[in-house]
Amino acid sequence: MSKCTGCKQCESACAFFHTGRVNNHLARIKVMNLYETGIDGPVVCAQCKERYCMKCPENALTIGKFGEVIVSPTMCNLCGTCEKSCPVGAIEAFNDIVYVCDLCGGNPKCVRACTEGAIVWDKEAVEHISLEEVKKETKKMNPSQKRNFYINKLGSEVRMKWRQADA
Amino acid sequence: MLNYGYGGRILRIDLTSREFQIEPLDESWVKPVIGGRAANTKRLFEELNPDCDPLGPENILIFGVGPLTGSLLPGSAYFTVSAKSPLTGILGDSAAGGQFAPEMKLTGFDQIIITGKANKSLYLMITESGAEFIECPEYSGMSIIETTKAIRDKQKDYSIQVAAIGPAGENKVLFASIVSSGNRVNGRTGMGAVMGSKNLKAVAVRGSRSVDMAEPLAYLKEVEEIKQRILQHNEYRKRYSMGTTMLVKDLNSIGILPTKHFQEGVCSYVDDISGQKLAANFKVKNKACFNCNLHCSRYYIVDKFEAEGPEFETLCSFTSRIGNRDLPFALEMNQYLNQMGMDSVSTSEVIGWIMECEEKGLISPKDLDGLHIKWGDKDKIREVVDMITHRRGIGDRLANGSKKLSEDFSEEAGKLAMQVKGLDIICGDPRGIKAYGLTYAIASRGADHLRAEPYFELTDRKEEAKKRFGTEKAAQRLEEEGKAALVTWSEKIALLTDCLTMCKNVGLCMDILSFEKAAVLLRAGTGVDYSAEYLEKILGDAINTDRKLNKKFGVSRKDDTLPERFIKETLKEGLSKGSTVNIEKMVDEYYRIHKWND
Fold first, then answer.
1. Residue B213 backbone class (left: φ over 0; alpha: ψ -120 to 50; beta: rest)
2. Assigned CATH for B429-513+556-594
């Protein structure tokens, strides 16, 4: 995250690949620009250990071969359970569609779009990251607030390194 | 019907009655001005009462974007704010990059036109469906970032982008700025004071529409090619590392780095204040505008100060221009000015003018309420800047800018105010860059380089110069011949970037944009039938509109000049030694080319 410049080329590439449109709100990766700390960072499905979103009452969610979350548009009834359960705001219903990273079928456009090397796809990292601690703190938040909280939290570590380097 | 590229609508807001109206943007209206700055000027030309008080409810404040703003095109992240300037009394406008413009674009409004005056301090929350008027007296006195955070927290939405004013704008400092994306500044001509006069603390935008292109794949192909050209540009590494702050050493090396208020063009301690030093010691990461692969902006930390930036103008304004050799202090000032919402160039000019006049005995501390300030006196500079921000004590007079301030003193002191038409000159001594000198003189918002940015004169591309401008001298910075022709060409390219709305570093200085390239992008983007010839013609017309509007404000030929220093005094050291600007001759030629008489 120390490499992210906040340019949002990843968002634009994601939205354009999936929808053919330029509207970054249609992206499945979301870059937060936190002006009060200078931190910029993308939020995307981390394929977390807990898989909070999978308790979908309609069983519309499955896990694909790369560990990605797949939403069945026919089974999903937009109840919002997955959105509510994700601790970091990486899955969200918007305009009758559930947006979550699908790894572009194995060739993620965001990784290619990032000229800074800030986004990497670690194929081994499926269900490695635990979001349990974050979950406790973001329960009552909307997805945007969760993303803000999460990037702030990750950003505080980056800022500590900046401060050390400055001193 | 404008189905592509453009949002296709304008939003009119009356702050007095707290009502808004949505109107369609007519293709026949907008095609001859493209969008952005030229569209804003046309709107002012058609609708503004030229005699209005710039700080009264009648003044029209316009936020404008263009047909390619917020698209995949790198650098297409700018928006222009225009109004009658309270600092100069003529056409005022200022552009900024970052993230505000693309978000504004997604609201589907190409222009937001604001008139009237709110009876209580408020902010506008603008979405696809219009504007909400949200009172916020509790934000009074807040910095830009505090205001941005307060609005986002309150709306529970961190995709919102905010363009706000700080205390300087609230106090109607005549060179107050508007700041968005935390540290992205619409700095010049006092647009922040206009917002302040309307009791408008901030404009917040959150869009949900798309920027649909007429031929997405053709457009994407052009974008990919431009991205490659940026990456392969011979200045890429340098710009990536330092952004415009690379100019500190570059300008010093050719003897035009304003030092001690333009008394000198070579700074002996340049290595202490350079972009190189900033990058090596204080930069912690790169920052970027929306969809740009140059990432030329930077974030720094120094002691308890941190911010994005600074760009060259602010860095020079608070180092050599006022005799300060302490880089961390300039970085402190950058943060302060950005957060208080005040233009760094105009602030520096007021301070530098006092310093020089005091040194020369043209004014004394008793003329300015006991204010005594020497070159590089950090504590005093800090104090004075704070007094200006809050119009406290003598700061109240200083907040009216160098021109108005100097009018209270002798003619000799007045001549030392480094301004044209009331706008303070940027950091580049025109004695060593003649086409820039001409640009400062003729620029329609007052002394300014961005109206033409004729960097071509620094390229030494002699053959090309002969072919395009009739003389090899157009590519040689110390020559005056051919500069009127050069500026006539580059002011159109500069306006083109402002209309698309694109970054000038990418579009102009890195030589990415031409009339042909713009026509291809516009056709693929908007589906409107733009051609290179047509663009060149309408850009010329738009420059005439600037002129006609300024004539309504009382501007005439005699105002298109430079401060006497640049015409009569020579620089004593460096590679621009011995040179002066024969400005009248260049302006006359420029007028001949434009077929202007007065």
1. beta
2. 1.10.599.10
* pLDDT > 80? residue A141: yes
Which residue type does B542 have?
A
* Average confidence score pLDDT of chain A: 95
Residues of A with CB below 8 A from B159's CB?
A: 25, 30, 144
Q: How far from A165 is each of A134, A156, A161, B241, CA to CA, in Å?
A: 27, 14, 6, 18
| CA terminus-to-terminus distance, chain A | 21
Which residues lie below 8 Å from residue B304, measured CB to CB, with a gap of 6+? none
**HSE, side-chain direction, 13 A CA sphere, residue B203:** 32
Residue with token string 């590494």:
B237
DSSP H or E segment with residue B124:
strand B122-127
Instruction: Evaluate whether residue A89 is within a structural domain.
Output: yes
Q: What angle do CA B235, B241, B244 make, to 5 degrees?
A: 70
Mean pLDDT by 10 residues, chain B (598 residues): 92 98 96 98 98 98 97 96 98 98 98 98 98 98 98 98 98 98 98 98 97 94 96 96 97 98 98 98 97 97 95 98 98 98 98 98 94 97 98 98 97 98 98 98 97 94 95 97 97 97 91 95 96 98 98 98 98 96 98 93
Under 8 Å CB-to-CB from B530, ≥6 apart: which residues?
Answer: B31, B34, B518, B519, B522, B523
Contact A8 B307 (CB under 8 A): no
Tell me how far the alpha carbon of residue A140 is from its chain's centroid: 18
Cβ proximity of B295 and B263 under 8 Å:
no
Touching A: B residues 448-507, CB under 8 Å: none
Query: In chain B, which residues have their Cβ closer than 8 Å to the Cβ of A3?
Result: 285
> Strand locations in B278-365, DSSP E?
283-287, 297-302, 305-308
pTM above 0.95, yes or no: yes
B282 contact residues in A (CB cutoff 8 A): 166
Question: Between 1.10.569.10, 1.10.3720.10, 3.60.20.10, 3.40.109.10, what CATH number should domain B233-420 receive?
Answer: 1.10.569.10
Class of domain B9-205 (CATH, top level)? alpha beta
* Cβ-based neighbours of B154, under 8 Å, separated by 6 or more: none
